[in-house]
Design brief:
The structure is a single chain. Helix 1 links the parallel strand 1 and strand 2. With 355 residues, the protein is an alpha/beta fold. Helix 8 packs across helix 10. Helix content is 41%, strand content 13%.
Length: 355
């Protein structure tokens, strides 16, 4: 009988990020189905000290960029998300900004999994070495599942490259979320990585419908999940909805989230929409999962390789657009779903074998 493992998961902080929370939910669900005990290391909470430091930086920058939000407002904004986490994701006791590595021994983790999301992108992780599990001794099994660099360009400096090249050799298995990540690992880290699906794609539409089944179905509409809003995008979305004779629902993440927003309602938007327009990786994922007609705005700053890798896998490259077309070819969902089932099985088998 296979060993039941006590697994600690290290990913990006669980904040107001729909896709970030759902990829962690999905990974835990798969690990439980494989017979293991996963727990996510909870960190990244904003403290008052962090808030004051952020304010000082904001002032020094001439009041440019995102205005710091105090911990009370931040906590209120996350209410709907934390309810989902409390109900569906097993996490350690919440900490503040830093990762508390003493939790590994305290929780008796024999395995650590880092991923998914852009955990290996330096600009999103100031302490990139932590995402390569730097302080962890080799008596703990280390695995990377669907770790993402977010881009096909190498963004590490020389010191980071040298140290991460050494750290990755202590992993018993490394998989990446984008095909370009395989080449980056080979060229810069001297490691042969495997390309796998994002954790959200390891579950089925039925799994997600179960989460939002209590939400009343709405009449068809256009759902726009846009992370980087612009006047051009909003004008184009309004024009597209009017041309289709449908209402338009627009949602974002991060600073735009309200305390009343929930993961379940977000899933219901995908379930009920006639068409989805997005500039988000996970917005693209859930459009595919729910078999919705969709278009993706390219997002070079956040990393276009994420989109091209995912869309190429399913033969949907034409869905990456600069401008939303009023007419397009119908997606052959029978073919897409068949590819998805095949890749899901392959990815789960990789994870199961490494455990």
């Amino acid at each position: 009988m296979d060993k039941k493992r006590r697994i600690g998961i290290l990913t990006q902080p669980l904040t107001t990020n729909y896709g970030g929370i759902l990829q962690n939910f999905a990974l835990q669900k798969v690990l439980i189905r494989l017979g293991h005990e996963p727990v996510t290391i909870d960190y990244g909470r904003l403290s008052w000290i962090d808030y004051m430091h952020s304010w000082c930086s904001y002032c020094r920058a001439g009041y440019k960029g995102n205005r710091p939000e105090n911990p009370i407002a931040n906590k209120n904004k996350q209410q709907g998300f934390r309810k989902f986490i409390d109900a569906h994701i097993c996490v350690t006791m919440p900490k503040t900004r830093k990762i508390d590595w003493t939790i590994v021994a305290a929780m008796h983790f024999d395995t650590l999994i880092v991923g998914s999301d852009q955990v290996w992108r330096p600009c999103y992780n100031p302490d990139i070495m932590a995402m390569f599990l730097k302080p962890i001794e080799n008596n703990v099994k280390k695995i990377a599942y669907a770790a993402s660099f977010g881009t096909d360009q190498w963004e590490y400096d020389e010191q980071q490259t040298t140290e991460c090249r050494q750290l990755i050799q202590t992993f018993c298995g490394v998989s990446v979320r984008e095909q370009s990540g395989v080449q980056l690992c080979k060229d810069h880290l001297d490691y042969s990585a495997t390309w796998v699906l994002d954790p959200t794609l390891l579950l089925t539409k039925k799994d997600y419908e179960g989460l939002c089944g209590h939400i009343k179905k709405e009449k068809p509409f256009i759902f726009a999940y846009i992370l980087d809003e612009s006047e051009r995008k909003m004008d184009e979305l309004q024009h597209f909805a009017q041309a289709k004779g449908l209402s338009l629902v627009v949602k974002s993440a991060g600073p735009q989230v309200k305390g009343t927003d929930t993961i379940e309602q977000w899933l219901a938007y995908f379930r009920d929409a006639q068409c989805v327009i997005t500039d988000s990786f996970h917005g693209t994922v859930f459009s595919i999962l729910f078999n919705k007609d969709f278009f993706v705005y390219g997002n070079q700053e956040r990393g276009n390789s994420r989109f091209s890798s995912l869309l190429h896998l399913f033969g949907l490259q034409s869905r990456l657009v600069e401008t939303i077309p009023l007419q397009s070819e119908t997606i052959n969902w029978t073919t897409v779903n068949s590819m998805h089932n095949e890749q899901r099985e392959r990815s789960i088998n990789w994870l199961a074998n490494k455990l």
